[in-house]
Amino acid sequence: MIDDEYLQTAVDAAEKSATILSENFDTEFDVEHKSPTDMVSEIDIKCDRVIKEHIRERHPDHSFFTEESGADGDGSYRWIVDPLDGTHNYVNSFPYYCVTIALEIDGEIHAGVINRPEMNEVYTTVRGKGAYCNGEEIAVSDTERLTGGFLGMGISPPAATDEEFLELFKRLIGNPVRTEGVRRLGCGAADLSLVGQGTLDGVFDKYTSPWDVAAGTLLVEEAGGTVTDLNDEPLDFSAGERELHIVATNGEIHDAILDQYERASNSVAVKRE
């Protein structure tokens, strides 16, 4: 375990949320629809409150940016939180969900934790100190070619009509590139943990949010991988909900995915002419 005061705060807060999630998994609880395609459960809201209360006890002057309560406070220390990433999975008793917490200091992610209760896995990272799962150091895969890549992807509702993104997906599953597979599992932070430990060679998503990827971005980088947006630029964690796009890989296949996205964009542009 990395010795870092802020990481320990995040680990303890995430564990409190994970306990609530485990106790209520596959039970009945209230669910509300924020939109026709987005939902929030009473469990999300309870976990959000518990996490913020715990962090405030230790760091009362820090601010928050969470999925359930948005921006809360200002200052150079900001906690970016998703108390339940993978709500749709959780509500439907599919055990692929997690708690994810990151601390941003002066615009840079300093520490992060991803707690996956159903797997009893806690991923931790601090900038410059490596990436770990249950205290054991992890590293990204060594897959060198995109044709041998095993990938994950995120598909939020806007992606269903995004021609460039859909063209990228088609290119990666068979023409012209046949990867080992592209999986859509419905929990972006958990996907990033799998990249960090080398199970997935990369993930991509065009409509994600800061709280879904802040901790996982640092985890992948500290595990030896590469993370950018689809334009090969650093991620902007001040973006709003579903305003971020991301490519996170082992580094070896990163440029190849970006190249395929550029080719997909050019192909769509030609079809529109």
How does the SSE layout of this entry go?
Layout: H1 5-24, E1 31-35, E2 38-41, H2 42-58, E3 63-66, E4 70-72, E5 77-85, H3 87-91, E6 98-105, E7 108-116, E8 121-126, E9 131-133, E10 136-137, E11 150-154, H4 163-173, E12 181-183, H5 188-196, E13 202-208, H6 210-222, E14 226-228, E15 244-249, H7 254-272
Parallel strand pairs: 3-5, 11-12, 11-13
Antiparallel strand pairs: 1-2, 3-4, 5-6, 6-7, 7-8, 8-9, 9-10, 13-15, 14-15
Helix pairs in contact: 1-2, 4-7, 5-6
Plain-language structure description:
Strands 4-3-5-6-7-8-9-10 form an eight-stranded mixed beta sheet, sandwiched between helices. The chain has seven helices and 15 strands. The chain is an alpha+beta fold and 273 residues long. The termini are far apart. The chain has helices at 5-24, 42-58, 87-91, 163-173, 188-196, 210-222, 254-272, and strands at residues 31-35, 38-41, 63-66, 70-72, 77-85, 98-105, 108-116, 121-126, 131-133, 136-137, 150-154, 181-183, 202-208, 226-228, 244-249. Helix 4 (163-173) crosses helix 7. It has two domains: 5-137, Fructose-1,6-Bisphosphatase, Chain A, domain 1 (2-Layer Sandwich), CATH 3.30.540; 146-272, D-Maltodextrin-Binding Protein, domain 2 (3-Layer(aba) Sandwich), CATH 3.40.190.80. The relative contact order is 0.14.
